[in-house]
């Protein structure tokens, strides 16, 4: 994975190519009190090593191209918002483990490679619906993610601090270091991952997946008997992605690859722009226009076919396969009506995209007891709708994008453990959006594997 890395270390970009975003409207940016401090941190970041390398990013682009054609399936998952406090070895290991377990099941269901991408190692900046938050008469700046300010509700904690970008950079680096160790050092051994999945299906709550797990068992025994070298399967490629929201941070991480002369945002392999910052003429899209990474755009229910074509004109004008993924988040109740005209428009246009479903963000509700939550059954219904629409139109459902954690949190309702509203209070830990817990994530993977087979 790191072959040729010396030529890919890159130099900070000195050209106008990547700076076009500065002339465009930029939503969701923190108001830093001291411009001098911001400039000093940016300059510092510019001098630091890249977190990911051009060769790795190019490999992911090739895999995303395969996914656009149905020759691979994308699994993107991780926290809504990573936090500095949860940046521990245990949390990282559990998330990687969950994603590897899901990927093993999905690989069997899809009969194609699964592209494993963590919403990890950089998911530290969040878009917010309001600039301020008021509690008991006190109004403070909203929490915008740990790379901007702290979640604690005091003025000192909420004032944006540019030094947090440096902390986010360092924590992303240590996270990637651990991910590389886990996925290159034998932790991803398929036999081991499959045995974890057998543990999951042994739970009576998930006995309906027993027969699928038994089939995978037989496939593994067949592989072994046929002489497959399992030791060669002990290493897997695992990529990192986050929302390219905090423009100063992303800009400071852009490097020029000396071999190709291309610009890469070296903060992650894949970057996406969110539903709230996806204006085709706006700063976030302009930033991603300037770099060679695979790019994603989240699109919600108000997206028009014309906007989608505009986004393709900006982000993938030449129709390079693997460059652009469209991450749809419509809501379970609406996807079957809203998605078809968008897919048909892109189909008629002809430039390839990789369609991915985010079944989380269109299905957020507030429980009667005040918790922001999502129903597992609605999440699954949106995934089902996504498959139905693509199958009806003859297009490719290329992947899923989910908010999950490797822990036994209680943030989403339902699933085999039947978490109810009262149960949410037991272990509700997310700083922003509710995540599937470890079991709910595996349950989703088994269900999606069945959809992929049918
Ligand atoms: C997110 O991915 O956490 C997010 C905020 O998504 P969206 O932009 O789709 O609302
Ligand atoms: Co979220």
SSE blueprint:
Blueprint: E1 11-12, H1 35-46, H2 54-68, E2 73-78, H3 89-110, E3 114-118, E4 132-135, E5 138-141, H4 155-158, H5 163-184, H6 190-201, H7 210-225, E6 238-243, H8 247-252, E7 254-256, E8 263-265, E9 270-273, H9 283-289, E10 295-299, H10 305-315, E11 324-328, H11 335-349, E12 354-357, E13 365-366, E14 372-373, H12 376-393, E15 397-403, H13 438-453
Parallel strand pairs: 2-3, 2-15, 3-6, 6-9, 9-10, 10-11, 11-12, 12-15
Antiparallel strand pairs: 1-7, 4-5, 7-8, 13-14
Helix pairs in contact: 1-5, 3-5, 3-6, 3-13, 6-7, 11-12, 12-13
The chain binds phosphoenolpyruvate (PEP) and cobalt (II) ion.
Detailed description of the structure:
There is one protein chain. With 454 residues, the chain is an alpha/beta fold. Helix content is 39%, strand content 14%. Strands 2-3-6-9-10-11-12-15 form an 8-stranded parallel barrel, surrounded by 6 helices. A 3-stranded antiparallel beta sheet has the order 1-7-8. A two-stranded antiparallel sheet has the order 4-5. Helix 11 links the parallel strand 11 and strand 12. Helix 3 (89-110) crosses helix 5 (163-184). The chain is globular. The structure holds phosphoenolpyruvate and cobalt (II) ion. Cobalt (II) ion binds at residues 80, 361, 403, 432-433.
